[in-house]
Design brief:
Blueprint lengths: L2 E6 L3 H11 L5 E7 L2 H11 L3 E5 L7 H11 L4 E6 L4 H9 L4 E4 L4 H12 L7 H11 E2 L4 E2 L12 H4 L3 H12 L3 H8 L3 H15 L4 H17 L1
Parallel strand pairs: 1-2, 1-3, 3-4, 4-5
Antiparallel strand pairs: 6-7
Helix pairs in contact: 2-3, 4-11, 6-8, 8-10, 9-10
Length: 228
């Protein structure tokens, strides 16, 4: 079965552009277009999308408003937020309300395809520019350590962070940023085997089977803190 895509954007040229980018892929089908969040919500039970491209700034109902409704009513739909800007507030709200990813509208075709296939496979897709915004919200840039409110001794830390050591928390932070084992090893001047052992320890402590679930849980718990 092809991946079913719904595109919600108030500019018809953008909707047609996304359709043109995707229509030649044998495993992808664009099943609908909507000019605003309201119509996107109305179309969902009709076209039954797997992935929704959701523009952030739309009339009647914005993408952020629609995101909050859709993730509650249709939790299985994977939502890729679509924006002209690498806006901090937009990115953090996308994470907060459960978007599977965030793309700028000038993203090239190959990255869009990677994003679609990644989120369908259960992964999150926040490219480096967006990941940097997210991680800087949590981490002191000068030191690379977690901000005080997210540090291991903080009462505001959610359960996943309380279960890991300080170094494991740093590695988990890097994983949520999208860094691979080689990049993490270089950052902390340790071996990739050490990184692998630390990651295995985190998985065991948190009680999840794979890194994708671990990152998703970390982002969800961060979203809960932002809501509070």
């Amino acid at each position: 079965m092809p991946i079913r895509i719904l595109v919600a954007d108030d500019h018809s040229v953008v909707r047609k552009g996304v359709r043109t980018l995707l229509e030649d892929e044998v495993d992808i089908e664009v099943v609908g277009e909507a000019p605003d969040g309201d119509e996107a919500i109305d179309l969902i039970p009709v076209v039954k999308p797997d992935v929704l491209f959701l523009d952030i700034t739309m009339p009647r109902m914005s993408g952020i408003e629609a995101l909050q409704i859709i993730t509650r009513q249709y939790p299985k739909i994977r939502i890729l937020m679509f924006s002209m800007h690498n806006n901090k507030d937009y990115i953090l709200k996308s994470v907060q309300y459960g978007a599977a990813g965030y793309l700028q509208k000038d993203t090239d075709r190959e990255e869009i395809l990677r994003a679609v296939r990644a989120v369908v496979d259960g992964e999150l897709y926040y490219p480096p520019s967006a990941s940097t915004v997210i991680i800087r919200h949590w981490v002191v840039p000068e030191t690379g350590t977690l901000k005080e409110e997210y540090s291991p001794g903080s009462k505001s830390r959610s359960s996943i962070w309380n279960k890991v050591s300080s170094r494991e928390a740093q590695i988990l932070t890097c994983l949520t940023e999208g860094m691979n084992s080689q990049e993490i090893a270089k950052k902390f001047d340790i071996s990739t085997n050490t990184v692998a052992n630390q990651r295995a320890s985190i998985l065991k402590k948190v009680g999840v089977k794979n890194t994708v679930d671990l990152i998703r849980l970390a982002l969800e718990e961060k979203s809960g803190r932002m809501k509070n």
